[in-house]
Amino acid sequence: MNNIFVFDIETIPDVDSGRRIYDLGELSDKDAGKAMLALRQQQTGGEFLPLHLHRVCAISVVLRRADRVRVWSLGEPDADEAELVRRFFDGIDKFAPTLVSWNGGGFDLPVLHYRALLHGVQAPRYWDTGGEDRDFKWNNYLSRYHERHTDLMDVLAGYQPRASARLDEVATMLGFPGKMGMSGAKVWHAFLDGDIEGIRDYCETDVLNTYLVYLRFELIRGHLTPQAYDTELKLLRDTLAQEDKAHLHEFVENWKSG
Asked: Which of 134, 141, 155, 135 is nearest to 113 (CA)?
């Protein structure tokens, strides 16, 4: 397989920007976040913040390269947001991989765009649409219908929002583990409690579900033979079983079929 870079992010309210935009003064992070969510509830009827007010607290990836597959979270647990965003785009510049996500076009990548803008993170390879490399004119990371970024939710729904599905439900339908232990709605509370490791573990299981759905997608469109598909599943199972991480072992235990 070519270099495959599957990714998922977890976010919390950007309380620093919230204080400036909404004039929240010296409120604590907890209270500033609460105020931002309350204001959003008044504006829209829901607490989901606009994308430019999401701060990245974890980025987890699966990298399939050469004869290996690896899952990890970028940076150390105490790394700041700028480092996480920089590591993400540095990986794209280094490997020029196929990016794979679930709703990455609608959420993860726009959030990363705004955070790169905030921190001044350079990513010339990612933003290239043919000015530097002519091949990128016809296949780049930014065009919805190109394949350097495959947003599985978008593609499988035929680019029809009303046909979109949840990753958890699709993964579970296919016999993969689906959500384990946490959800995006709980990330802010976990962060306030100092449980960044729990957030990173959750993000890693989400990105593993995405990778497994991607392998099935590669099978149905003929990019993998049934034998090659089974080989990829075995490689991932064996890799996770060798990891000294309880959440990855639990993931394998909950992996029923596929």
From this structure: 141
What is the per-residue DSSP string for 131-173? SS-THHHHS-SS-TTSSSEEEHHHHHTTT-GGG---HHHHHHH
Domains of the chain: residue spans and CATH: 4-253 (3.30.420.10)
Q: How far apart are the first and last CA of the chain?
A: 19
**Which residues does 106 contact at the CB level (< 8 Å), separation at least 6?**
151, 153, 154
In terms of phi and psi (left: phi > 0; alpha: psi -120 to 50; beta: otherwise), the region of 73 is beta
Query: What does the pLDDT look like over 90-148, one tens digit per residue?
Result: 999 988 999 999 999 999 999 999 999 999 999 999 999 999 888 899 999 999 889 89
pLDDT of the residue at 48: 94
The answer to whether 83 and 57 have CB atoms below 8 angstroms apart is: no
DSSP-derived secondary structure for 224-238: S-HHHHHHHHHHHHH
Phi-psi map region of 159: left, alpha, beta (phi>0 left; psi -120 to 50 alpha): left
Q: Which stretches does DSSP call E strand in the chain?
A: 4-13, 54-65, 68-73, 98-101, 149-151
Q: How many residues does the chain have?
A: 258
Q: What is the pLDDT of residues 140-173, one digit of tens each?
A: 999 988 989 999 999 999 999 999 999 999 999 9
The SS3 assignment for 119 reads helix
Cβ-Cβ contacts under 8 Å for 98 (sequence gap 6 or more)? 2, 3, 4, 5, 147, 148, 149, 150
d(CA 33, CA 51): 14
Tokens standing for residue 186: 């709980």
pLDDT at 258 over 90: no
